[in-house]
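$ ./design --mode recover --in tokens.txt
reading tokens...
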């Protein structure tokens, strides 16, 4: 008893730990992922800033890579037929340029006539709205409109007749005259910028198709000395190539089908410039969700202006909605397969993000970029949760 009375608390704790009555508790440690979160966020923000700042470099680069991925299988088939890669790649690019130029030339008259009717269409739209909703205006709206007109007329009369107060100089603001040279210069500068972008993209795609698998082998060598790292890199590159080629093939097929179907449907109901709207539907079909919304709204407005009837406008919109709905919900998922499907919310948010970052080019390139990101995340162990989150 005397010995126990002189024991310190530390000795008592040690004796209890040795006898199994109590165990020393460890202080909880904070996860290392929390410490790395600021570094991850800083990397993401720096990447977004770099993509925005250097978009004049990245947009042609991504376009050239996508075109080379799309045409590489055809170049390989031509090479099997004893056609050199340089000749086959040049022939394919010239065919694409020639086809696009011929289509633009054949539709220039119809496009010009549609543009010339825009002022008349706007005036017709205003008159139609006044006729459609004139009966729904209340007496308060009419009185308010009359009061605004009287006030406007009175202010103009007072400004023209009353002399300016002493010590006050009357100032008349003149609107600047229309400067045709500025408009022509801006239009020419935009055309030159587009042509320079097209030339850079075509040359980059040509050189990538000409190089063949050179960059692929270099990436495999840079993946590390281990065999597992090289195998993962090869699998990732194969999956990226297969995903992009399948996506582009499906998009081209469905866009052409949507364009032809829309053209025939608009021609059947008597919509003016049906061919132009069919081509617009085919091109905008490359933009997920937003392209269909633009076509549905645009064709509904054109139908309302042409037929001057709300029922016809709804009919045209319903036709566009049915075509894009069948294509987006049935045909495209069936052609792409479940392996390449992505979450609808992720696709929509991703398209909005790339559209905000790169404008119209971001809307077109957003989906292929996200497919590449998903393929990388599915193969890299640290990013597999991100790939799972992006899956449909």
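writing sequence...
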């Amino acid at each position: 008893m005397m010995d126990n009375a002189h024991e310190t608390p530390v000795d008592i704790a040690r004796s209890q730990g040795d006898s199994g009555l109590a165990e020393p508790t460890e202080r909880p440690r904070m996860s290392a992922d929390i410490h790395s979160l600021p570094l991850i966020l800083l990397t993401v923000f720096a990447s977004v800033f770099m993509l925005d700042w250097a978009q004049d470099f990245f947009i042609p680069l991504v376009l050239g890579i996508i075109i080379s991925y799309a045409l590489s299988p055809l170049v390989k088939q031509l090479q099997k037929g004893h056609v050199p890669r340089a000749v086959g790649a040049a022939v394919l690019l010239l065919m694409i340029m020639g086809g696009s130029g011929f289509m633009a030339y054949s539709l220039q008259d119809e496009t010009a006539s549609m543009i010339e009717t825009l002022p008349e269409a706007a005036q017709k739209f205003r008159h139609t709205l006044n006729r459609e909703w004139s009966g729904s205006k209340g007496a308060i709206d009419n009185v308010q409109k009359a009061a605004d007109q009287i006030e406007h007329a009175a202010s103009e009369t007072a400004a023209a007749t009353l002399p300016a107060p002493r010590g006050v100089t009357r100032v008349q603001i003149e609107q600047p005259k229309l400067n045709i040279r500025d408009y022509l210069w801006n239009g020419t500068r935009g055309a030159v910028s587009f042509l320079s972008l097209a030339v850079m993209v075509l040359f980059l795609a040509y050189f990538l198709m000409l190089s063949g698998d050179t960059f692929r082998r270099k990436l495999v060598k840079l993946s590390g000395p281990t065999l597992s790292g090289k195998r993962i890199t090869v699998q990732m590159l194969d999956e990226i190539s297969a995903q992009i080629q399948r996506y582009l093939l499906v998009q081209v097929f469905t866009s052409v089908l949507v364009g032809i179907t829309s053209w025939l449907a608009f021609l059947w109901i008597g919509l003016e410039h049906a061919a132009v709207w069919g081509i617009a539907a085919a091109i905008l079909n490359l933009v997920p969700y937003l392209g269909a919304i633009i076509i549905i709204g645009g064709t509904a407005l054109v139908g309302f202006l042409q037929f001057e009837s709300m029922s016809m406008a709804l009919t045209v919109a319903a036709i566009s909605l049915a075509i894009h709905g069948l294509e987006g919900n049935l045909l495209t998922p069936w052609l792409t397969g479940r392996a390449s499907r992505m979450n609808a919310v992720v696709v929509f948010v991703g398209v909005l993000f790339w559209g905000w970052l790169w404008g119209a080019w971001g809307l077109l390139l957003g989906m292929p970029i996200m497919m590449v990101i998903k393929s990388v995340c599915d193969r890299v162990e640290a990013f597999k949760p991100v790939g799972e989150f992006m899956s449909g």
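exit 0
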